[in-house]
Design goal:
Blueprint lengths: L1 E6 L11 H4 L4 H11 L3 E6 L3 H10 L4 E5 L8 H9 L4 E5 L21 E4 L4 H12 L3
Parallel strand pairs: 1-2, 1-3, 3-4, 4-5
Helix pairs in contact: 3-4
Length: 138
């Protein structure tokens, strides 16, 4: 099974950005942990650019996608339409609980077109999303 993890804007700053919310570990360190603790083949892509995220989703030939769209979660109709258009299951992940934060973060445009959502479990949310794919192999 091949899984693509896609992280959106500012997630390249994990480990440095607001550690009280996002923790002290870089995502590169965490993805190495995921690769060694799973039987899935995991690829990783991060971009701060909306169009690059869309291109990565459209070009994916993986079995599933784990997506943390960052701030685009709440604003990008284009990203939402891309997820609806591709024939791959997408699990939406957020490190923080977006519904317990600022009001503008409460609405996800991505959730309605995702097969599932994991919010508020820190980086462990990616492992939980990965377990969905491991348990529901296509």
């Amino acid at each position: 099974m091949r899984i693509l993890i896609v992280n959106g804007p500012n997630l390249n700053l994990l480990g440095k950005r607001e550690p009280q919310i996002y923790g002290n570990q870089s995502f590169e360190e965490y993805v190495e942990y995921l690769k060694t603790s799973s039987t899935a083949e995991i690829s990783y892509f991060q971009s701060n650019v909306e169009g690059e995220l869309i291109n990565a989703l459209q070009a994916s030939d993986h079995d599933g996608i784990i997506l943390n769209a960052g701030g685009y979660t709440h604003t990008s109709v284009a990203l939402r339409d891309c997820i609806a258009a591709i024939d791959l299951p997408v699990v939406e992940v957020h490190i923080s609980n977006i519904t317990s934060r600022e009001e503008f973060r409460h609405t996800s445009l991505i959730s309605p077109v995702s097969v599932g959502c994991v919010f508020g479990f820190g980086m462990d949310g990616y492992r939980l999303a990965l377990s969905y794919f491991e348990l529901n192999k296509r």
